[in-house]
Design a protein that fits this description.
There is one protein chain. The chain has about 200 residues and is of the alpha/beta class. The protein has helices spanning about 5-15, 30-45, 45-50, 80-85, 90-100, 130-145, 170-175, 180-190; strands at about 60-65, 70-75, 105-110, 150-155, 160-165, 195. Helix 2 (about 30-45) packs across helix 3 and helix 6 runs antiparallel to helix 8 (about 180-190). The termini are far apart.
Length: about 200
């Protein structure tokens, strides 16, 4: 094949600014396609252009949502950029879902889980880095901007645990189609089962 033109190389280097993996690892083909989509949006979408300029992702992967024929794209973003992503999240997700033909896009920040410190100092590890805190934060990221209004742990007949998460019913119209996706992504990221529902506000009696 022909050698890449200087323009191709320039495009590739610009696109690669939209994805920066940890430890300088090279993005795979799928991650490149998500980085390209972000690059295209920054170039062509007037609404998102300014906000996207300083944003980049650290990873992306596609997963099958168990028990459905849906697919989801999990996009990892640097924790320090999460607030900036959330500012444009609704519009950005909508645009990415158009570009990736109806796959559900979920944005999750990179967070490190730190093992408990056994030195006897109970405060040696920040609470925000415990497994429980990181898993709770993943839930918040996934459903953003919808608020979680309650959580209950339920035990199944076989003794296994399932977390029930109640979402703010005012966002029902915009989130209901994604509930299976949220459950599938959470299971993929944490290995834990979760179900999502909306609290019943009015008495059904």
């Amino acid at each position: 094949g022909a050698a890449p033109s200087p323009l191709d190389n320039k495009m590739a280097s610009v696109r690669s600014k939209k994805i920066v993996k940890e430890k300088g690892a090279a993005p795979d083909e799928f991650e490149e396609s998500v980085a390209q989509a972000l690059f295209d949006l920054e170039a062509t979408n007037q609404e998102l252009k300014a906000d996207l300029r300083d944003l980049y992702i650290t990873g992306a992967r596609e997963i099958d949502i168990h028990g459905t024929n849906r697919k989801s794209i999990i996009v990892n973003v640097p924790y320090r950029l999460l607030k900036s992503f959330q500012k444009i999240q609704l519009r950005l997700v909508r645009e990415l879902e158009k570009k990736f033909s109806g796959k559900d896009v979920v944005i999750v920040a990179n967070r490190r889980i730190m093992a408990p410190v056994t030195s006897g100092q109970s405060n040696a590890r920040p609470r925000s880095r415990s497994l429980t805190a990181v898993h709770a934060a993943i839930l918040d990221d996934m459903v953003y901007p919808t608020e979680i209004v309650g959580k209950r742990t339920r035990y199944r007949v076989d003794g296994s645990k399932v977390l029930k998460v109640y979402l703010d019913p005012k966002d029902r119209n915009s989130t209901e189609y994604k509930l299976d996706t949220f459950s599938g992504v959470y299971k993929k990221l944490t290995g834990k089962d979760v179900t999502f529902e909306y609290p019943v506000t009015e008495s059904t009696a």
